[in-house]
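Message: I would love a firmer grasp of how sequence relates to backbone shape in proteins. Thank you; the sequence and its tokens follow:
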Amino acid sequence: MFHLYRQTWSQPTAKRLQPLSPGQCRVHETGIKMICEYILQDGRRLGVRRVSSIDTAFVDDLFAKLLFKDVNGKKVERRTTVNHAMKTARSAWNTISRAHPGVFPPKNPFERMGLQSTSRETPHATFAELAAFRAKAIEMGHPSLATGALIGWELLQREAHIFIRFMVDHYRPPSRPDHVYVINYKTSTGSWEPLLNAKGAPLYPVLMAELDAIKQLRPTGGLMLRRDGSSQPWFGKGEMLTQVQRITKKIILAAGLRPELTFTSFGRHGGTTEASASGLTETQLMQKGQWSSTAAMAHYLHDDDEAKQDAQMKRIKRRVRQAKRK
């Protein structure tokens, strides 16, 4: 089943316009290995069993046994990884059963497992922390990371969008000089975002100034953001962004910021939380961040005192207005 499933990764499907990215393939491979290499009581690998012998009771038991890993004698939960493994198996079963009707068991035991996400929350930065990070990044000779963080904050983008898929011709091309094309890396779709308001004033003055300057340095096109000094891509083999994460951590520590912050804290998580606190509607947030559901968007909205304070102040002001009418 998994062998046949791998063969579909390089092909577009009804749900996916483009092949899977290297990152998505890595996630699937991790899940496949976790499931197939599981050793059964008879000493065989689970990967050699026929799919027809697997039912919901077996899958539930498998999940429970994979959930904890022994680390130095202690059981450590790895819920996110196991969840991904179950989702990979679910997707593989659905994909292959549709391609081989009548010869493949139609009932998917990996469906409706009720998977729960980990309670770990990605830390989000404040606008002041974003400014401090950007200033230190420029000081340390990494202005492209400073610009990348601002792209993430303003346009609610993931690292992969910014450093792997953002091309020069996506920004103010001759056919759309007042727009930027924002790609959804996961779905390979995108939308043209306006850069000016109805009166022609810049909506992102700082970001536009930086991108305009970078674009002048890229007369032949290609990636918009490259490593400072070498002009090499920020991503490495398999589109890994290890260098972005490593240097970002150095900048965070040098700036005296919270050590738990990551590049994502300044981008999609921090920007989305600020956007929500600024009063954007649910629909506006979903359109700007290109989320397909409110459930997916909820992972990027974090508790924010300012938003809650503002909400309560609105209630208090309403009570005052009502009291005056009486």
